[in-house]
């Protein structure tokens, strides 16, 4: 946390140009990298190398990127929209932050970056939750159950 901290922004969303301009205006180009769209295997590598994952969405379904981060042992800082509270328990498997609250996001990120014990505990709990809840066998059983209910 501090000057050695860097930010990697993955994807090509509609705000990319605006964000790039903001980075330049703040003079922080040396600390922020925009990857653009990346392949799935590259996402896994990025998640594995990250200390914290942040996705302060305004809307969401069941966010696969958050599940990928958690499975990688990367503690998520996310907003409690749509399906997010089903997978992230605030302070246990991640940090829930208020929608449109930049200060709340900044405090949650700073807390995790400063406190390696907290970051480690959340990382472990997040990974354990995803591996235990979303393994292929249990997912396949759920799909079969839906098919069976549909047939009956």
Task: Itemize the secondary structure elements and their pairings.
Blueprint: E1 7-10, H1 16-26, E2 32-36, H2 40-49, E3 53-55, H3 64-71, E4 76-78, H4 84-87, E5 95-96, H5 102-114, H6 116-133, H7 136-151
Parallel strand pairs: 1-2, 3-4, 4-5
The average pLDDT is 89
Biggest sheet, spatial arrangement of strands: 3-4-5
- Strand residues, percent: 5-15%
Low-confidence stretches: none
Overall strand count = 5
Q: Order of helices and strands, N to C?
A: EHEHEHEHEHHH
How would you classify the quaternary structure?
single chain
Roughly how much helix do the residues carry, as a percent range?
Answer: 40-55%
Radius of gyration: 17 Å
Number of helices: 7
What form results from the Cα inertia axes? Answer: globular
Q: Main beta sheet: strand number and arrangement?
A: 3 strands, parallel
Cα separation of the termini? 56 Å
Helix and strand composition category = mainly alpha
Structure notes:
It contains 7 helices and 5 strands; from the N terminus they run βαβαβαβαβααα. By secondary structure, the chain is mainly alpha-helical. It is globular, with a radius of gyration of 17 Å. The strands form 2 sheets. The protein has a 3-stranded parallel beta sheet. It has a two-stranded parallel sheet with strand order 1-2. The model has no long low-confidence stretch (mean pLDDT 89). Helix 3 (64-71) crosses helix 6 (116-133).
């Amino acid at each position: 946390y501090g000057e050695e901290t860097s930010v990697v922004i993955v994807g090509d969303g509609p705000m990319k140009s605006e964000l790039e301009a903001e980075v330049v205006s703040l003079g922080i180009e040396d600390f922020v990298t925009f990857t653009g769209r990346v392949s799935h295997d590259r996402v896994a590598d990025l998640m594995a190398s990250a200390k914290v994952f942040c996705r302060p969405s305004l809307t969401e379904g069941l966010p696969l990127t958050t599940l990928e981060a958690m499975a990688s042992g990367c503690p998520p800082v996310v907003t409690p929209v749509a399906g997010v509270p089903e997978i992230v328990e605030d302070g246990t498997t991640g940090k829930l932050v208020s929608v449109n609250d930049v200060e709340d996001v900044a405090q949650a990120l700073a807390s995790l970056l400063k406190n390696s014990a907290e970051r480690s505990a959340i990382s472990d709990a997040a990974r354990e939750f995803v591996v235990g809840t979303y393994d292929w066998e249990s997912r396949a059983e759920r799909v079969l159950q839906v098919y069976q209910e549909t047939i009956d």
